[in-house]
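Section 5: illustrative case.
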């Protein structure tokens, strides 16, 4: 019952936004992306040492064994994210906590202050259309945002500006494919200067 209520609310928000002339602007994926696999909805568990001190058990539960729930509102502020990456306007790449594939790049087309302000207002990191890596991310018909590898990321909650992707930090705290802990400690300054 609770699951249907969440889906109804998300569908209603999308319908209202669309009726107001706000384009949904998503790359839609098939629900089969989230079919059961070897490890919940993914082929693999989350990485062992997630960025920003994100909790592995929480991440694994939300990424792989969940379709509707989220980390608690404001969780991202309890991590080291603000200390390591929230102090300047360098673009940060957010990687899938299971696979290490790039999923989001922010801030893009806005300042870090604007990104943090919007994320704080909504309780979760909030990305806009141009900040999504559509090679690896899809929206499902119910508003759920997922990786093509089956990682639950969050939900699309459109507003008057368009699609707003509220994403669990634990879902995008992975390290890039092939990186060691020493090579990527959460500070993407070197990588962002080459973007």
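Designed sequence:
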């Amino acid at each position: 019952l609770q699951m249907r209520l969440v889906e109804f609310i998300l569908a209603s928000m999308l319908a209202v936004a669309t009726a107001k002339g706000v384009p949904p602007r998503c790359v839609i994926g098939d629900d089969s992306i989230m079919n059961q696999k070897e490890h919940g909805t993914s082929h693999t568990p989350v990485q062992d040492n997630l960025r920003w001190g994100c909790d592995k058990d929480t991440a694994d539960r939300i990424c792989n064994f969940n379709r509707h729930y989220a980390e608690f509102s404001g969780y991202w502020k309890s991590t080291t994210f603000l200390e390591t990456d929230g102090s300047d306007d360098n673009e940060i790449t957010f990687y899938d906590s299971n696979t290490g594939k790039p999923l989001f790049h922010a801030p893009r087309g806005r300042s870090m202050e604007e990104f943090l302000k919007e994320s704080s207002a909504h309780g979760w990191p909030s990305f806009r259309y141009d900040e999504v890596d559509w090679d690896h991310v899809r929206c499902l018909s119910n508003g759920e945002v997922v990786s093509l590898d089956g990682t639950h990321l969050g939900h699309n909650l459109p507003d008057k500006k368009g699609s707003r992707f509220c994403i669990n930090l634990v879902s995008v705290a992975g390290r890039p494919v092939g990186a060691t802990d020493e090579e990527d400690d959460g500070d993407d300054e070197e990588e962002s200067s080459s973007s």
